[in-house]
Amino acid sequence: MLRFVILHSRTIIRRTVTSLPAIDMADSTIIDRRDLEFQLLDVFDAATLTQRPRFADHSRETFIAALDAAQAIAEERFAPHNRTSDEHEPQFDGERVSVIPEVRDALRAYCDAGLLAADKDYDAGGMQLPALVAHACQSLFQSANIATSSYAWLTLGNANVIERFGSAAQKRKYLPALLEGRFFGTMALTEPQAGSGLADLTTRATPNPDGSYSITGNKVFISGGDHELAANIVHLVLARIPGAPPGVKGISLFTVPKFHVNDDGAPGARNDVALAGLIHKMGWRGTTSTMLSFGERGACIGEIVGEPHRGLTYMFQMMNEARIGVGMGAAMLGYRGYLASLQYARERRQGRRPDEKRPDLPPVPLIEHADVRRMLLAQKAYVEGSYALCLFAARLVDEQRTAADEPARAEAGELLDLLTPVVKSWPSQWCVEANSLAIQIHGGYGYTREYPVEQFYRDNRLNMIHEGTHGIQALDLLGRKVAMHDGRAVALLGREIDKTIGDANARADLADEARALANAWRNLGDTLAVLRPAFAGHATLALAHANAFLEVFGHTVVAWLWLRQGLVASRRLAQPTHDDDAKFYRGKQQTCQWFFRYELPRMQTHHTLLRALDDTTLTMAPDWF
Ligand SMILES: Cc1cc2nc3c(=O)[nH]c(=O)nc-3n(C[C@H](O)[C@H](O)[C@H](O)COP(=O)(O)OP(=O)(O)OC[C@H]3O[C@@H](n4cnc5c(N)ncnc54)[C@H](O)[C@@H]3O)c2cc1C
């Protein structure tokens, strides 16, 4: 339905799809809509995608209409219960898991609007929106309510794996139900003894004569692992077939539904998947976190996805997409805190300016104090920089799928592969920092539960942990990604960065930033030139500072994306500009300048340590602590 109306009118879409009252987009607490449209349309050129056959039905207007519809549902259905679901965690009474009803209503509105299948083919019931626009829509839900939105993106990731690697029968059985939100999905990797080290997972899948497998084992931390929000839950489970090679090369992937699926597609008898208990968390409390027991009664049946022993490769597809989702979630929680603290800093009055201490004058708004503006600038730099990073990754997904020729598609895929650990990690680290600054701006009030910023902080703290910890992402980037195809992906990134440097050099107001980015990129190359040969024979030492490398790499990439934003702002300001627009562009330029003056130079310490191959952490013996 959405597909039909979206092609016609944004007025119709709001009335038909959401039946929601019009909302004031300009006064939103979940997004700065001006920024979203600037990034989507001006920086990442979403409208150019409409020239490609896949998106030919779309236009700038349909993209805006999709965002309007998403924002309306996010603000009306998701945001209002963000605090309630934090205060009323899911409960397990020994038989059933109950979740507050607002979660189901919100997800129903989301699925009914066709948003789960936003970027899928028309034939699959989708809207064929570019991934860039679909991720932008998704970001609004993550901002409004990260916990409720997680059921949707887990389901989408699950459907993507089945769509790509499942058999025709599995696609028939699960895909329509998942994409319409009748069934929800999970990813079940982690076991008590195997978290980061998936090589050690022990869940077993024993072949049955009819081609199915009997699954036995225990999984922990499985998000969305049990609830009654959908008619069925399709678990994607990693397990070992007896006789499989040891380590990650012996892991296979299975669909294991909570209820078996009848021939007519309806849920049938209960499969032997038991909820061993719920986990109580610091944040994301609205998402059920479960310990699941497979095959306690010897009757848990699963079906293999694709070929035996290739399960982790398949699952990595889901994890890679999930990692863009994690980065985006982190960016949006940071964004939410930034907007809340900006409003607070404008409204709360306290103290006087250092040069104007007269007590007969009223106190000034917090935003008048330089230190408060420092904290706002840092937040703006982290959250809008993170947003740019995640949207750029989504644009790469579109390039990988729809660029004009195969070499261009392959290049986009390599670049995305390289950047995935950064997209997952940089927002997770720096937007928690942003959330901490948002609390700081609220002073003592920020530390209370009466204001929302403490929840954003708690919610965001997860993002450095799940979908591969920060440390694991760092190892992935330095140990694998930068060396991929003999460093070709790094060279591709360098080519993109050079283009921006060239454009910025042509503008007097950005010459300093262009020079600083060129230096930063050269520095990164010099550091890599030391680290890469060190891998031969000294891999442990080379990887000891993978975390510092992730930070310099991430800061360099985000500096580049800030310069891209600064460039668009500079071009717009060179033309006659409406006063409000001019303020927006000046804000972009100033934040770009801040990032280059205050953040990027801090990376020099990391470069020095990395190049020295310093061994202080490595030689600190465990029993010296
Ligand atoms: C709220 C929540 C939701 C989750 N949802 C899911 C889900 O839906 N499905 C699922 O399968 N899992 C899920 N997880 C599990 C999550 O992916 C794991 O917690 C994560 O992968 C880390 O595993 P671990 O907790 O066992 O920590 P460990 O692997 O024990 O790691 C502990 C610390 O040691 C470090 N470390 C570990 N190994 C190395 C190494 N080789 N080199 C350097 N440092 C290392 C880590 O970086 C980390 O800092 C979830 C977790 C949480 C908290």
Report a brief summary of the structure.
With 625 residues, the protein is α+β, with helices and mostly antiparallel strands.
Model description:
There is one protein chain. The chain is of the alpha+beta class and 625 residues long. The protein has 20 helices and twelve strands. The protein has helices at 2-6, 10-18, 33-43, 60-78, 82-87, 101-112, 131-144, 146-165, 168-179, 311-347, 370-402, 406-441, 453-460, 470-479, 488-505, 511-543, 546-573, 579-599, 603-611, 616-619; strands at residues 91-92, 97-98, 183-188, 204-207, 213-223, 232-239, 252-257, 259-261, 267-270, 273-278, 289-294, 301-304. The strands form three sheets. Strands 3, 4, 5, 6, 7, 10, 11 and 12 form an eight-stranded mixed β-sheet that branches. Helix 17 (546-573) packs antiparallel against helix 19. The longest helix has 37 residues, at 311-347. The chain is globular, with a radius of gyration of 25 Å. Residues 1-21 have low confidence and may be disordered. Bound molecules: flavin-adenine dinucleotide (FAD). Flavin-adenine dinucleotide binds at residues 186-190, 195-197, 221-223, 281, 284, 289, 462, 465-469, 471-472, 475.
